[in-house]
Amino acid sequence: MFRYTKATALREVLTWVAALVYLIPFYFLLMTALKSDQEVFSSDPVAPPSSPVFSNFTDVLAQRGQSNVLLGLFNSVVLTSGSILAMVLLGSVTGYVIVRSTHRWSRLAYYLFLTAIVLPTQLGTVPLYIGARAIGLTGSLWGMIILYTGMLLPLSVFLYANFFRGLGTEFEEAATIDGASRVQIFFRIVLPMMAPATGTVAILAGLIVWNDFFSALIFLGGSEHQTLPVAMYFYVGSLVSQWNQIFAVVIISMIPILAFYLFAQKRFMQGFAGGLKG
To answer: Do 193 and 172 meet the contact criterion of CB atoms below 8 Å apart?
Structure first.
């Protein structure tokens, strides 16, 4: 039976203190974004706005050209969703084949994917850009989805493979006896049981793709498919000192990925723990 002790109370107090410390930057972010241009420089940074101004958010979303935050938000959503879908499908199938295969090459393939996680992707930026431009993938969301899928697929395979190792074969054998094909077994039985791993892959890959600035700037530069970090870069560069609007665009960029994390955080924690045990 659980007993509430002094040690438990101390841990709760320390947890609340740590949470408040981490929330301090978000407090400044929100308070500044709700202040007018005059109040940003005339009031105390800690003080809340005397009269909250929401026009900062509407002004940010009304921008056009290279600073089009709304278009960048749409492109980031499409790019992140497409990349996650591709990584879940390819990563789960690859991890399943590696774990269930009895050939000697499966272990070698696993270690190759593991090595690819350690290698920095920036090392191959120049040849990757030359190859992508040669086949017409630069300046395209489809090209970026292929790029991110290739860059993050090793992480997806690693997480799925560790989960598949802990999954027994009883359900698969029973489905085989009932006449189910390999494809039916995987998509109707195995993949639904991998929901924690899928949540982990989706959140980790989503955070990386959503926040990536370098690759999007290089491969989408000058096109109409610029992502939100690139649009923020041009927008912030044009403002100089309008911190209320700068913080407003930062808050806008945080909302979608935070909402997605809150929706899938339970699966993320289960998947992360399972991946570590593997």
So the answer is: no
